[in-house]
Fold this sequence. Notes:
Elements lengths: L2 E6 L4 E6 L12 H4 L19 H13 L6 H17 L5 H10 L1 H13 L8 H9 L4 H16 L8 H7 L1 E3 L3 H9 L6 E7 L6 E7 L2 E8 L1 H19 L1 E5 L14 E6 L28 H8 L43 H5 L21 E3 L1 H14 L5 E2 L6 H13 L5 E4 L5 E5 L6 H10 L3 H6 E4 L5 H15 L1
Parallel strand pairs: 3-7
Antiparallel strand pairs: 1-2, 4-5, 5-6, 7-13, 8-9, 10-12, 11-12
Organism: Culex pipiens pipiens (Northern house mosquito)
InterPro entries: G_patch_dom (IPR000467), XTBD (IPR021859)
Protein name: G-patch domain-containing protein
Amino acid sequence: MVHRESVHSEDRDILLICEPVSLDCDSNVDLAAKGEPLSVVPDLEQYRNPFEPDLHWELRRKFLEQHRNKLAEDELVSLSQAFVNVEVWGAVYCEEMMARVALLGGTLAEEFRNRKRQMTQRITVPASQAAVDWVHQVSEGQRRAERRLQAAEMLNPVFPVTTVADVFRNFVLVEDNLEDSKLHYEALNGGGFVYDVRATADPKQFEATITASGLRLSRVVGTVRKAKQRCREEVLRLVRQKCYKIRTNPNRCWYSCNVERLPSEQNVDCDGNPFASRWQAPPKPFQSKDQLKEDNVGYRMLKKLGWGGGPLGKHKIGIVDPIEVQAKRGRRGLGLPQPTPAPAILSLSEASNFPLALNYHQPTPVLDLGTIPFQIDVNFYKDLIRNFKARQIGYDLIFSPEFTDLERTLLFKLASEQNVAAGTVSYDYEHYQFMLPRHRVPPHELLVKILVEKHPIYCSLYTVEPPEAGEDGRERHNKVLELCSR
């Protein structure tokens, strides 16, 4: 006999049609008294209703599979339907039924609720707009992409520049530095900032003006020095009020690093190959006029230590001849320092590429890195620098201070081979860290990444401040926020 039962939901009443079920909360029931268990049924698809959605049937199927060996068929099918009604539609039964459903579907209900939270949030649109989108087969995802594209267009610079408002739209004040921001503006090829000082009828007074793309932004009359200073201050005040401002978040910790020193299992050369493989060829024959004789005391001592002749060292790459005594030249005493050559003079470009850790007062000898064994994973750092360049990472790579001077020199060599800028930083002038500076993004691209795309890395690195004055700037910013929030 079919039983009809009306249950109450939060916003509407639902009429459920189900078989009468027992309200016994004990799951260990006598299956023989209530029919065969569901485990004897090979296919559960026969219990699916013709118009049941996939999501509802997936939840009910898990309920059936979890309790198919515990409950009788009629009871389990009815309980599964009640469970779906409670979780999906928010139906409410009597206290005994709700307790039974909660007991049997505890874990499944928690998984379904977590999954529901991660689903795409419901978006409410006007009925007329929904009808138009349905007729033209336009999804909400396409609408959202169009809105983001429209917001990005509102942040991009405009060409040609015809009004002062266009100048303020194209100008972005970076780090509150007018000179650097002026260079970014000129890179847009929309004109440049021009400082002009002209004499007036009064020989003690001069007229200072600043123009951008041929449009005058400021004009001050006074002495040469004061006129230029006040004119610059006036332009800086205007761009602070009417332009976007980007600041770097002061979250740099000089004691931190994001690249650790990765040691290798064996010594490798500067190319990442095993170091011993370079010396597998037979060593050079021992040919020296200062060869030790067999009756020499030093020769007998080395023989007892395991020396078999030839170069010293584990890899047979050490010295061959005995240490020669250098003859003393000059009349200086033994305790006095010897004269050193004059310091080498490097050009600005050479000095910028020179490691700070190796910048001594005397010329640094040129090292042949191919003859030095390294105990770091060279291949890993080669791939790291290559990927850093290819992906245009938006944050600095700070290497651990545990790297030695020679290892930092090798990192400079690897970076120069990939044509990647590199530098050295120090927090106490004693511990130096190798650094790969982040990819510099133009200001207008930063605005799009932070305000429109909400890129997590750039949002953590920079702070964007909207224009404070000017109707055009404020309205444009509010429109961008509105388009990105819908």
